[in-house]
Write a structure and sequence with these properties.
- The strands form two sheets. A five-stranded mixed barrel has the order 2-3-4-8-5.
- 23% of the residues lie in helices and 32% in strands.
- 22% of the residues are buried.
- By secondary structure, the protein is of the alpha+beta class.
- It has a single domain, classed as Beta Barrel (OB fold (Dihydrolipoamide Acetyltransferase, E2P)), CATH 2.40.50.
- It is built from three helices and eight strands, in the order αβααβββββββ.
- The radius of gyration is 22 Å and the shape is globular.
Length: 182
Protein backbone atom coordinates (compact mmCIF):
# COMPACT_ATOMS: atom_id res chain seq x y z
CA UNK A 1 0.00 0.00 0.00
CA UNK A 2 2.83 2.40 0.93
CA UNK A 3 4.65 1.55 -2.29
CA UNK A 4 1.50 2.25 -4.38
CA UNK A 5 1.06 5.59 -2.58
CA UNK A 6 4.73 6.47 -3.20
CA UNK A 7 4.44 5.63 -6.90
CA UNK A 8 1.22 7.66 -7.19
CA UNK A 9 2.84 10.61 -5.39
CA UNK A 10 5.92 10.32 -7.62
CA UNK A 11 3.81 10.25 -10.80
CA UNK A 12 1.78 13.26 -9.61
CA UNK A 13 4.99 15.18 -8.89
CA UNK A 14 6.40 14.33 -12.34
CA UNK A 15 3.14 15.40 -14.00
CA UNK A 16 3.21 18.72 -12.11
CA UNK A 17 6.83 19.34 -13.10
CA UNK A 18 6.04 18.60 -16.75
CA UNK A 19 3.13 21.08 -16.64
CA UNK A 20 5.31 23.80 -15.10
CA UNK A 21 8.07 23.17 -17.66
CA UNK A 22 5.62 23.22 -20.57
CA UNK A 23 3.97 26.46 -19.45
CA UNK A 24 7.36 28.11 -18.86
CA UNK A 25 8.34 27.28 -22.44
CA UNK A 26 5.09 28.50 -24.02
CA UNK A 27 5.74 31.37 -26.38
CA UNK A 28 2.96 33.41 -27.98
CA UNK A 29 3.67 34.39 -31.59
CA UNK A 30 2.36 37.90 -32.19
CA UNK A 31 1.52 40.02 -35.17
CA UNK A 32 1.91 43.78 -34.84
CA UNK A 33 -1.84 44.37 -34.87
CA UNK A 34 -2.09 42.16 -31.76
CA UNK A 35 -0.33 44.98 -29.85
CA UNK A 36 -3.03 47.51 -30.69
CA UNK A 37 -6.06 47.70 -28.39
CA UNK A 38 -9.28 46.85 -30.19
CA UNK A 39 -10.50 50.46 -30.20
CA UNK A 40 -7.26 51.68 -31.84
CA UNK A 41 -7.35 48.96 -34.47
CA UNK A 42 -11.00 49.67 -35.24
CA UNK A 43 -10.31 53.43 -35.51
CA UNK A 44 -7.37 52.75 -37.82
CA UNK A 45 -9.47 50.54 -40.09
CA UNK A 46 -12.17 53.22 -40.34
CA UNK A 47 -9.93 56.19 -41.10
CA UNK A 48 -10.59 58.00 -44.35
CA UNK A 49 -7.76 58.46 -46.82
CA UNK A 50 -5.59 61.51 -46.34
CA UNK A 51 -5.64 64.00 -49.19
CA UNK A 52 -2.27 64.67 -50.76
CA UNK A 53 -2.74 68.38 -51.41
CA UNK A 54 0.73 69.80 -50.82
CA UNK A 55 -0.58 73.38 -50.91
CA UNK A 56 -2.23 72.78 -47.50
CA UNK A 57 -0.56 72.05 -44.14
CA UNK A 58 0.19 68.36 -43.63
CA UNK A 59 -1.78 66.54 -40.92
CA UNK A 60 1.44 64.67 -40.13
CA UNK A 61 3.26 67.83 -39.07
CA UNK A 62 3.74 68.04 -35.31
CA UNK A 63 2.41 71.59 -35.24
CA UNK A 64 -0.59 70.90 -37.52
CA UNK A 65 -3.32 73.46 -36.80
CA UNK A 66 -5.83 72.50 -39.50
CA UNK A 67 -9.40 71.49 -38.83
CA UNK A 68 -9.57 68.36 -40.98
CA UNK A 69 -11.33 65.71 -38.83
CA UNK A 70 -9.55 62.88 -40.68
CA UNK A 71 -6.20 64.49 -39.87
CA UNK A 72 -7.07 64.68 -36.19
CA UNK A 73 -8.06 61.00 -36.21
CA UNK A 74 -4.76 60.11 -37.88
CA UNK A 75 -2.84 62.11 -35.26
CA UNK A 76 -4.61 60.26 -32.43
CA UNK A 77 -3.77 56.86 -33.92
CA UNK A 78 -0.15 57.83 -34.69
CA UNK A 79 0.45 58.93 -31.11
CA UNK A 80 -1.40 56.14 -29.29
CA UNK A 81 0.46 54.55 -26.41
CA UNK A 82 -2.48 52.37 -25.37
CA UNK A 83 -1.38 48.78 -24.79
CA UNK A 84 -2.94 45.34 -24.63
CA UNK A 85 -2.49 44.45 -20.96
CA UNK A 86 -2.90 40.69 -21.46
CA UNK A 87 0.59 40.60 -23.02
CA UNK A 88 2.29 42.18 -19.99
CA UNK A 89 4.95 39.77 -18.67
CA UNK A 90 4.30 37.28 -21.47
CA UNK A 91 6.85 35.26 -23.44
CA UNK A 92 6.38 36.31 -27.05
CA UNK A 93 7.88 35.90 -30.49
CA UNK A 94 7.42 38.72 -32.99
CA UNK A 95 9.00 39.60 -36.34
CA UNK A 96 10.32 43.06 -37.10
CA UNK A 97 13.14 45.37 -38.07
CA UNK A 98 15.89 46.73 -35.83
CA UNK A 99 16.45 50.42 -35.14
CA UNK A 100 19.73 50.45 -33.13
CA UNK A 101 19.95 52.53 -29.96
CA UNK A 102 23.04 51.24 -28.12
CA UNK A 103 26.18 49.32 -29.09
CA UNK A 104 28.91 47.45 -27.22
CA UNK A 105 32.66 47.93 -27.80
CA UNK A 106 32.61 45.48 -30.73
CA UNK A 107 29.83 47.50 -32.43
CA UNK A 108 27.19 44.87 -31.74
CA UNK A 109 23.69 46.25 -31.15
CA UNK A 110 22.73 45.76 -27.48
CA UNK A 111 19.42 47.64 -27.36
CA UNK A 112 17.08 48.71 -30.10
CA UNK A 113 13.55 49.54 -31.13
CA UNK A 114 11.81 46.69 -32.89
CA UNK A 115 9.46 48.12 -35.52
CA UNK A 116 7.03 46.59 -38.03
CA UNK A 117 8.59 47.97 -41.21
CA UNK A 118 12.00 48.90 -42.57
CA UNK A 119 13.04 52.55 -42.18
CA UNK A 120 10.72 53.32 -39.27
CA UNK A 121 12.01 56.10 -36.98
CA UNK A 122 14.21 57.37 -39.78
CA UNK A 123 11.30 58.68 -41.79
CA UNK A 124 8.48 60.86 -40.50
CA UNK A 125 6.24 59.94 -38.83
CA UNK A 126 7.54 57.08 -36.67
CA UNK A 127 5.13 54.26 -35.82
CA UNK A 128 2.77 54.88 -32.89
CA UNK A 129 4.25 53.93 -29.49
CA UNK A 130 2.08 50.81 -29.38
CA UNK A 131 3.73 49.70 -32.63
CA UNK A 132 7.27 49.98 -31.27
CA UNK A 133 9.04 47.69 -28.80
CA UNK A 134 12.15 48.65 -26.85
CA UNK A 135 14.38 45.56 -26.82
CA UNK A 136 17.25 45.11 -24.36
CA UNK A 137 19.76 42.37 -23.73
CA UNK A 138 20.74 41.66 -27.33
CA UNK A 139 24.03 39.85 -27.91
CA UNK A 140 26.05 39.32 -31.08
CA UNK A 141 23.69 41.35 -33.28
CA UNK A 142 26.12 42.92 -35.74
CA UNK A 143 25.36 46.46 -36.80
CA UNK A 144 25.58 45.45 -40.47
CA UNK A 145 22.71 42.97 -39.99
CA UNK A 146 20.06 45.59 -39.28
CA UNK A 147 18.77 45.69 -42.85
CA UNK A 148 17.21 42.25 -42.44
CA UNK A 149 14.06 41.34 -40.52
CA UNK A 150 14.35 39.21 -37.38
CA UNK A 151 12.25 37.05 -35.11
CA UNK A 152 12.70 38.33 -31.56
CA UNK A 153 11.73 36.11 -28.64
CA UNK A 154 11.59 37.26 -25.03
CA UNK A 155 9.46 38.58 -22.21
CA UNK A 156 7.22 41.47 -23.22
CA UNK A 157 6.14 44.13 -20.71
CA UNK A 158 3.99 47.24 -20.98
CA UNK A 159 6.88 49.39 -19.80
CA UNK A 160 7.21 52.66 -21.76
CA UNK A 161 10.63 53.71 -23.06
CA UNK A 162 11.41 57.08 -24.66
CA UNK A 163 14.33 57.96 -26.90
CA UNK A 164 15.13 60.74 -29.37
CA UNK A 165 14.05 58.40 -32.19
CA UNK A 166 10.66 57.60 -30.70
CA UNK A 167 8.65 56.22 -27.84
CA UNK A 168 7.80 52.57 -27.31
CA UNK A 169 4.77 51.51 -25.30
CA UNK A 170 6.23 48.01 -24.89
CA UNK A 171 9.60 46.68 -23.73
CA UNK A 172 11.10 43.25 -24.26
CA UNK A 173 13.97 41.46 -22.55
CA UNK A 174 15.41 39.32 -25.35
CA UNK A 175 15.95 35.57 -25.06
CA UNK A 176 16.80 34.89 -28.69
CA UNK A 177 17.17 36.61 -32.04
CA UNK A 178 16.88 34.71 -35.32
CA UNK A 179 16.92 35.94 -38.86
CA UNK A 180 13.41 36.01 -40.25
CA UNK A 181 12.65 33.31 -42.78
CA UNK A 182 9.72 33.41 -45.13
Amino acid sequence: MLRTLSIALYLTLVACLLCVTASANDVTTLEWTDLMPEEDLKALQQLPEVEHDYTKPSPFDENYQGDDPAAKQWQQILSSAKVVEKYNNTKVRIPGFVVPLEFDNAQNVTSFFLVPYFGACIHVPPPPPNQMIFVSGAKKLNADMIYSPFWITGTLTTEVMSHDLGQAAYSLKVDSIEEYSY
